[in-house]
Amino acid sequence: MTPAARAKAAIDLLDRIIDAARNQGAAADTLITRWFAERRYAGSKDRRAIRELVYDAIRLCGERPESGRAAMLALVAGRPELADAFDGSGYGPAAIVAGEPVAAAGYLPKWLSEAMQASGLGEEEQAALLERAPLDLRVNRLKGDRSTIAAELPDAVELPNLPDGLRLPGDTPVERMPAYEAGQFEVQDAGSQLVTLAAGAEPGMRVIDLCAGGGGKTLALAAAMENRGSILACDVDRARLSKLVPRAQRAGVTIAETRLLDPRREAEILADQAGRADIVLIDAPCSGTGTWRRNPEARWRLTPDRLTKLAATQAMLLDLAATLVKPGGSVVHIVCSLLDAEGADQAQRFLDAHPGWKPATPDIHAGHARGPGLRLTPFRDSTDGFFVAKMTMP
Predict the structure, then answer these.
(1) Residue 336 annotated as catalytic
(2) Catalytic residue among 61, 211, 286, 336, which?
(3) Which domain holds residue 85?
């Protein structure tokens, strides 16, 4: 493909991504995968170049652009050499016309930037949310050890404060490795590993992973527990939860069982677990503001109304978790968000509503204090953004 054809392809994809963000459609990576599947003629170099143009444009535009062309023209403003691709040929974009719409460069939509500022996150922190993310691994200590896996990956760097963590360049094809197929490691961001360690799960404990999703934190908990004790992995999403069973089998995890929850009937379905858990971990549904390094177009999807609804769900889950913990047990609130509305404020609301409960500082030697918990950010910690608070029952 010519540079002009690549630019036109990027504009087409950006149009689809912008429309999906406007109408809560598929994520950018899904749309890109579908687009390439329909165009087998695009070679690997073409795919890489088009993908880079698309994501460079997405990262550049804070507000959702009017169109894919407006987003690409914003990229041209900072990289004038790209203007040559707008040649008006049959395979390229139309020539640039003076005065046509150009998307504004920025980090975040205005309302989100203000919310970040109110949550103590300035321009440097906001900019770091849009940098490219590395690839982190969690070595599964049930099947392997970090030094052995690291020896097979010459570019691997051992992560401090994480006994099982390794970091690799973002495009490393680790899922093709025999060690991955054998369950010796999982792909998991360092921040996700750290906040899971904050739970303090130990062998023999009874743990409930209340929002388990595909089970990444369930598997990490099981490894920390040396596959001794029990983990009840719950979720309302049948498709996501079903992925845990084969993942657990590959990882050699035998202490985890799954339970599908019905929205608004969670307490009823978990009635047999009341007052029994040592730890209830809530990796709560959230805005995902801490994960924008991986899906930067998500900042065009979030609305104040959506944030309010997510906060209400988080409060409900925290109150439910309090009924499941036995005396002396803990609730661990985790969100991959940097907004206080989902993190520090949410944890403080829980403590105010449940007299006698106390915050416990997670022993992870990372993050920075924020309200009753800790916050990890890409700028300060080189991880995805997370908030974690551990609260203990009297």
Answers:
(1) yes
(2) 336
(3) 3-106
